[in-house]
Design goal:
Radius of gyration: 19 Å
Shape: globular
Number of strands: 0
Strand content: under 5%
Structural class: mainly alpha
Distance between the termini: 59 Å
Number of helices: 11
Order of helices and strands: HHHHHHHHHHH
Length: 256
Amino acid sequence: GNSVHRSVSGISTAKDILAVFECSTVSLSAQFGVDVVHQMISGLVDIFMVNSQNAQNSPQGGSSLTGELMSALQKGSTMGSLLIQNLMNFLCVVMTERKKTFHRLHGKVYDLVLGTLAPVIMHGPSVNFVDLELAIYKFCRTALVHHWRTFVSANMDGGEFRNDAKKAVCMSMFEIVLKSFERGGQAPESFQYNLITLEEANKYNRLYDSPAFQSVLARHFYFNLLSVLCSGGQDLLSAEVMKTLHNMASANYKYF
């Protein structure tokens, strides 16, 4: 009883703290300075990162905040789901911040989202986790649209991945998007959201023209989206699927 109470209390407190940071990042930066806020956010992310490592290393599965959160999430805890949504919203705010000072946080943020949160959420029951899945998809869109050039050089400069580490992070996010097209019974709103993510990334970063996309990812998206059309799994979105396929093919029709 006491351990359950402590878990709920810790998750509730963390949720409230995240809500404050999410709403106040800009005003805090103006009041205290970007460097100070960067240190505050870094410390907050570290709490989840350290707790995550403790939970993974503990023979008992860990009694850390992150360990408790993952356990609560798998048991269908409403409080746990709300905390994850607050955390993901907050991290998206951090990722959209244009000040380069915050860019130093990106490595930690990617580790937390792609290494800890996404595996639990994306392998959970889709019906129960649909809102959390959308939060992960939102994060992927934010990173791929706003920070594409941190992963891949400009097309005129070769359009290749900048290094293996950047490639691994970028591929992890594209894999999440790609698998959303493969999943049977995928919620239409999630499927549509990820189609728009590809189109947004192409609109702002010429994704489909990028050699990195053409050489590594294009064939997988061609195959998956064509399979969706043939199977009729997302009939209501057929027009949007065909539009995305057309735009991809237009970038390199001979390859398509």
